[in-house]
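pasting for the record
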Amino acid sequence: MDPMKRGLLITFEGVEGSGKTTQAKNLAQWFDEKGIPYEFVREPGGTDIGEVIRSILLNPDLKVHPKCEALLFLAARSQVVHDRILPALQQKKVVIVDRFSDSTYAYQVCGRGLPERLMRILNRFASAGLTPDLTILVDIDTSRRHERGKDHDRMEREDDSYHQKVRHAYLQLARRAKKRIKVLDGERSIEELKNEVLRHVQDLLNRKGHPS
């Protein structure tokens, strides 16, 4: 899809407990206040099928093989892309996604050790080739997830070494895509982070000539 003929795709990424979801919701609230048409979705989830898949993936009582895990995440992504993200972009809305394609590299390629080339191909297939216009990466030390009470679901309960791999992968991605991925210090206050997110978003809207 020609990016000049569609809406904008903004994604939020980060390790468990980073505060990315709070910032994604704050951005949605700001769009509400400004009267900017938007769509907010989360991954995995955002559709009836995606929410069922989410309940499987996050169930701490289930032992999910890494390959099965990856395919389930991608299946949920494919459904939400075709049901909600693509239609919203075609309507020239701003789409906010709480986790998207970068999470596959961080969690499944680097965290689980799955083959990067294969996952890149499958990820592109599941995401319909979409690349975010802006990605907000909220970065924190992985040990902070314990302090923030993030040890409830199956992914959150993975050991520290796994979460450290995920964080390293995100930072590696940010170095590769400096123009798209903006790294925010998750140790700052919620209000400070909100203001920083808004600066990046307003810059994007201005550059793309999006009415705001």
